[in-house]
Amino acid sequence: MATTDLAGLRALVTGASSGIGAAIAKELHARGAKLVLTARRRDKLDALAAELGGAQVVVGDLGQPGSAAAVWAAAGKVDVLVNNAGFGYFRPFAEIDWQRDAELVQLNMTSLVELTKLAVGARARYIVNIASIGAYQSVPNMALYAASKAFVRNFSEGLHDELRGTTGVTCICPGGTKTEFHAMAGAGNYSWIANASMMTADEVARISVRAMLANKRTVIPGLMNKLSCWGVRLVPRAFASWMARRVLGKPRPGALPSRAAS
Ligand SMILES: NC(=O)c1ccc[n+]([C@@H]2O[C@H](COP(=O)([O-])OP(=O)(O)OC[C@H]3O[C@@H](n4cnc5c(N)ncnc54)[C@H](OP(=O)(O)O)[C@@H]3O)[C@@H](O)[C@H]2O)c1
Questions:
Q1: Is residue 261 in some structural domain?
Q2: Mind listing the pLDDT tens digit for each residue in 206-215?
Q3: Number of the ligand 1 atom closest to the C-alpha atom of 20
Q4: What pTM was computed for the model?
Q5: Which of 76, 101, 194, 231 is packed most tightly, with the most Cβ within 10 A?
Q6: Residue located nearest, by CA, to atom 31 of ligand 1
Q7: Does ligand 1 have an atom closer than 6 angstroms to the CB of 19?
Q8: Does residue 259 belong to any structural domain of this protein?
Q9: Active site residue 145
Q10: Which structural domain range is residue 162 located in?
């Protein structure tokens, strides 16, 4: 339902070309925000901007050093920042070249921190950082991805307390969500329990925006995901890591796909 909670505010959403980012952009739009959409694939961003009846589009590769400042400068005034862009790969660490690891570190952590720094400096009203339930434990075959999300969670929670009264900082930790993420990560041969707890991007987006407006610290969408994150606190970390390996199954064979600007 359309509301006006965010009327007059401008929201920059990273990774708005698909999945959770596109769904969050629609949710913010429905609440009256003006959108600035960023990602690499211009055709997807243009299509979403048209669907929303107009939005600013900024094409940028946040996996490259220097791009966060350029995206920020092009975006203009930002009241709401959603750091959603991210990727992972589901492969043994030893099989992946350094370039992809460097891109992951840059996108999932460095650009997120840089945009957050700029948004805090500009006294933005809200910042939403998308982490993952992978933030709660180590994950074999997704070691760097899970570590990057643990970073996002810790960083966001520290800022939430530090910036109380000026900028609201909310961390969202989705579990499995039906998006292009899994195909891009070379994952998806999941156990029944992982498939049973899958949510839609629209569900995650609704929960994320509600959490932001309520100035929540950290929110894990979905009961199954909440239970799994609470459960890992009760078991040894090595057991939680072993369980993650069981639940995620085996990597999909074949080369990892890659996406470029369009
Ligand atoms: N799906 C899940 O199960 C799940 C679970 C937990 C957390 N998450 C997190 O949710 C966030 C959104 O993922 P999703 O599930 O919606 O997957 P997705 O559909 O693959 O979306 C990823 C978004 O990030 C953008 N992106 C990727 N690389 C980029 C780069 N170098 N520069 C700029 N933008 C880039 C993509 O756009 P372009 O390719 O057009 O650049 C796309 O818009 C990610 O942070 C992910 O880690 C997802």
A1: no
A2: 999 999 999 9
A3: 16
A4: 0.97
A5: 194
A6: 63
A7: yes
A8: no
A9: yes
A10: 10-248
